[in-house]
Every structure is written in C-alpha cells, then in structure tokens.
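Open question from group meeting: does this chain pack into something compact, or does most of it stay loose? Before anyone orders reagents, we agreed to write out a predicted structure and look at it together. Recording both the input and the output here so the notebook holds the full record.
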Amino acid sequence: MTKSASSAPTQAYIDTLLLYYEEEVEGETYFKALADFAEQPDHSDKLNLLAKVENHAANITLPLTRKYNLTPKGDALLFQSGQEMARRDNKTWADLLSEMARLFPGYVDDFLRLEAMAPPEDLPRLKLLTAHEVAAVEFLDLELSGAQGSVAPLNAYLEEDIT
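Structure tokens returned:
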C-alpha cells in the first residue's frame, strides 16, 4: 500500500483557514472604509491598494474554503465588521502606520503557522496568502521610512497568481 501524497487536514487547520479567509474579506472592507476617512488623497489611494491586496488574498484562499466545504460568515456580516473596525481605528496616518507596523509582522508568523499545518497540496495557495502580509510589512517599512515607491511590494503582490 502506498501512502497518498495528500494528507487529511486537522480541524485546527480547517478552523484557522476559515478564520483567515473571513479576516481577508473583513480586511478589504476595513481598508476601504479607512480610505473613505483619509484626509489626503495619497493616503486614500494607499489604503484602497491595501484593500485590493486583501481582496486578492481572499480570492487566492477561496478555492481552499470550497475544497473543504467551509461556510464563511456572510459577506454582509463581514463587511459590517470591517466597517466597524475602521470606525474604531480611524487614526492619524502616522498612528495608523505605526500600529500596523507593530501588528503585521505577527500576522506573517500566523500565516506561517497555517502553512505548517497544511496538507502539502494547499501550500502554493497558502504561500501566496502569507506573501500578502509580507508585502504589507514591506510597504509599511518603506512608507514609514519616507521612501519613494512604498507601494511597489503591494503592486508586485497583486501580480501574483495561481495558474
């Protein structure tokens, strides 16, 4: 008897995958709402770009939720949650960036833990999920340092796809 290349996912993996998918959907709405609050067009553009990154990450993850017949919370509920988070987090640009720079590296670690739990065949999609957070951290580092072209990592991520 040969061992299958596929391994059965754990419940912890399934639960985490569903949660992270839902958080990407919430995140898109969160960043769109923050963009609406932004006082400077440049900040609004960058927040809308972060929303696109979240959407792309959700779209990359969605087939895995379907593969395991997972039922995410409804979009309306996730959208409402994202908007409420944005209202609570409506800060100055500097404070928002500082908070994100403090939190986002931990999210990279969270996504790496998800990869470690995953069946091997899920890894290509999960590596792209992790990559979105890496791109966000790179963006934050560049933006906080005042570097030109801080959005380059976000734009590069949006070009990534599973083919």
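Observations to bring back to the group:
DSSP finds six helices and no strands in the chain.
Residues 1-5 have pLDDT under 50 and may be disordered.
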